[in-house]
Amino acid sequence: MSLAYKIAVLVFLENDAGEQLLLLRAKPPNLGVWSPIGGKLETAIGESPFECAVRETFEETGHRVTTADLHLFAMIAEKAYEGQTHWLMFLFRCKVPLTALPPTIDEGRFGFFSRTAIDALPIPETDRSALWPIYDRYREKFVALKADCLPGKPVAVEIEEITPAP
């Protein structure tokens, strides 16, 4: 199967109460489900994953951060996501909390949720089976993973490296 490969970031943001900011997506991918903010790297200008995370955080939430405010905690290669494309995703945790819920944007509307409440929300299956468990376990470290997301099969996630080693 020959599919395009896209490079993107997700940024995990919290408020002062430790609730996670999620976006109810109004556009594909992930139309109609809740997910962290993020977007594709501007590869034509050589944008780095950190630069993309800073830009996307501001564009989607108005929250101004620097690369020093971000912790890269995971990199995941998703094979055949939704049968449409391959994704190389860089996952960041923002160390600076949000003080208020951002306004609705073209991409969708925002909500703050406790980590427990997220498990009951409509979220992408890869988020449920891979991203949130990885966030829970490795958000203070770094982990590299790959996920086989071929349609019709359960998502299979494999850890390729953890730093520091367990």
- Shape by Cα distribution: globular
Tally of helical runs:
3
* Helix fraction by DSSP (H/I, runs of at least 4): 10-25%
What is the first-to-last residue Cα distance?
A: 35 Å
The CATH superfamily is identified as Nucleoside Triphosphate Pyrophosphohydrolase
CATH topology group: Nucleoside Triphosphate Pyrophosphohydrolase
Order of helices and strands: EEEEHEEEHHEE
Could you say how many structural domains there are in total?
A: 1
Largest sheet: 6 strands, mixed
Question: What is the percentage of strand-forming residues?
Answer: 35-45%
Rg estimate, integer Å: 15 Å
How many beta-strand segments?
9
Structural class: alpha+beta
- The stretches of 5 or more residues where confidence is low (pLDDT under 50) are none
The CATH architecture is Alpha-Beta Complex
Main β-sheet, spatial strand arrangement: 4-1-6-5-8-9
Mean pLDDT level: 93
Question: Which CATH top level class fits?
Answer: Alpha Beta
Summarize the structure.
This protein has helices spanning 49-61, 115-118, 125-138; strands at 5-12, 20-25, 34-35, 37-40, 70-81, 85-94, 108-113, 142-148, 156-163.
